[in-house]
Here is the input.
Amino acid sequence: MSGLPKKTLEQGMPHQPRETSSIAQRMRTLHKGASGVKESLAKNSLAKNSLAENSLAKPAARRKPGPRGPRKEKSAARRDAILAAALEEFAERGFAAARLDDVARRANVAKGTIYLYFRDKEALFQELLRQMLTPIIGGIEALGAADLPVEIFVERLVDMFVREVYETRRKDVIRLMIAEGRRFPKLAEFYYREVLSRIIAAVRALLGRAAARGEVPAGLVDFPQIIVAPGLLAIIWSGLFDKYEPLDVRAMMKAHVELLFAPRRAA
Here is the structure.
């Protein structure tokens, strides 16, 4: 081999520069591909930022509340039916003798359905009191806050009692409370707290202002029960003796007002 010309030997050896050139070309291709990926990612990032800015600049419109769903309406109607059935059962049998089985049958629901709305019979009765009497109490409190002359207040109170209590089923609820309260102290305490105490406070506040103006004796402020006593008498009378001697409740209560205030007018 030493005798061969140098040029011939060089032609027989592998050509290294061509392989190096191919590797470099591949590297350039990979670099271009990576650059393209980076550019694509950058464009996507800009697009996301643009969408975020648009969403901040234009807050989503609030969805308007839709109409009450039929399921809620059905649930409210079922609850009202239970309360109406409870009023009938309590008024007919009394609190002690009334049974939730009979309330459920009258309301056309399963007995277990009652427990979805009320913890027990006592809770059912309390809610019945609250639902039927709260609107009346609110009306009395509004009259008391109006600071009317006491005679006008009592006249309006009489009219409200006759129209909204004595001539409605609310009368049965109060009569039931009078009959059952002693045997069920928790019910009596609830009735006093939720009903009587609020009425007494409203009447007492008005009587205090009236006494300061000289419209009523100062001693009457301590006994606001005197103002509402004829109403309780009328409810008791209607349950026991009305069929023997009907009572003109409105006339009786107006006579009571005359007895209270006639001496002050004469003076």
Observations:
- The two ends are 157 Å apart (CA to CA).
- Confidence is low (pLDDT under 50) at residues 1-21, 45-61.
- Residues 104 and 110 are 6 Å apart (CA to CA).
